[in-house]
Amino acid sequence: MMREIFITRLSLAWLILIGITFASWVAGHSSTPSAINGALVLGLAFAKVAIVVWDFMEVRHAPVWLQIVTSVWVISAASLLIALYVLASQIGG
Amino acid sequence: MTLVQNNERTRHLPGEEGIWLFVIGDMVMFTALFAIFLHYRSSSLGVFTQSHTALNQALGLFNTALMLTSSWCVATAVNTAREAQYAHTRRLLGLAIGCGILFGGVKYFEWSEKIGSGITPASNDFFMFYFVLTGLHMVHVVIGAIILLFLTRIDWRVEHKQKVHLRNLESGASFWHLVDLLWIVLFALLYLAP
């Protein structure tokens, strides 16, 4: 029974999410902080968001309209926030 | 054509349509708040980059691990309910609530630490956003934990109600995953991005 609970696609998704979290920690702690590091941190965050939406929220099995709406949100929110972040960094310094 | 039809038939909306309207609305609202945060950041970049270093990133990392783990628990709880392993469903939901309570405890410690060292929402724009955004998120955590608590009380023995119970569980799970994904972006935006 424990095998059925722990050895699943969801557990693999959790492992990948933890792995990306540590990768973004490293990107956020670069010795030469730059807009690129920040953009990478935000990009990795939205990669995690996509995994949560697709696997944990089960959108991969959901009707197509929900897959489209959530994908449009993930892509447009990521693009908007990364663009604003990079633009602000360039204007400010 | 038949393949397409079969594929459409196996597709399943997890939870009520209403919860998805709420989830999508909340995602859009938070995106607007994050964009406003970045707009303010552009006009006082020095203050924002300096202030963000005052946040306890290790605690933020710990809370991220808690949120991800709680989401795994809730998603796995839904699967165990589908397989009629209700004792596991209850245990996993209990674990997720435990993660949520621990998350709240860490957040309370973090806020107290800041306020104790004289940092308040009035200190500057960065901390105003820090307290408002993490506060709004915390309200979601509390509501989500209460929903999960109700879900642990489901009496699965009444067979004709199991379909409705499962739908309610899926709706509650979708809300909890929303709480998780909002934190993922908050952690990146406030704590990690230099």
Concise overview:
The complex is a heterodimer of chains A (93) and B (194). In chain A, 82% of the residues lie in helices and 0% in strands. Chain A has 93 residues and is an all-alpha fold.
Instruction: Give the CA-CA distance, first to last residue of chain B.
Output: 51 Å
* Poorly predicted segments of chain A: none
Principal-axes geometry of chain A comes out as: flat
Structural class of chain A: mainly alpha
Number of strands of chain A: 0
Provide mean pLDDT of chain A, rounded: 92
Description:
The complex is a heterodimer of chains A (93) and B (194). In chain A, 82% of the residues lie in helices and 0% in strands. Chain A is mainly alpha-helical and 93 residues long. In chain A, helix 3 (35-56) runs antiparallel to helix 4 (64-92). Chain A is flat, with a radius of gyration of 16 Å. Chain A starts with a helix and ends with a helix. The model of chain A has no long low-confidence stretch (mean pLDDT 92). With 194 residues, chain B is an all-alpha fold. The longest helix of chain B is centred in the middle third of the chain and has 31 residues, at 86-116. Classes of the chains: A mainly alpha (93), B mainly alpha (194). At the A-B interface, helix 2, helix 3 and helix 4 of A face helix 2, helix 3, helix 4 and helix 7 of B.
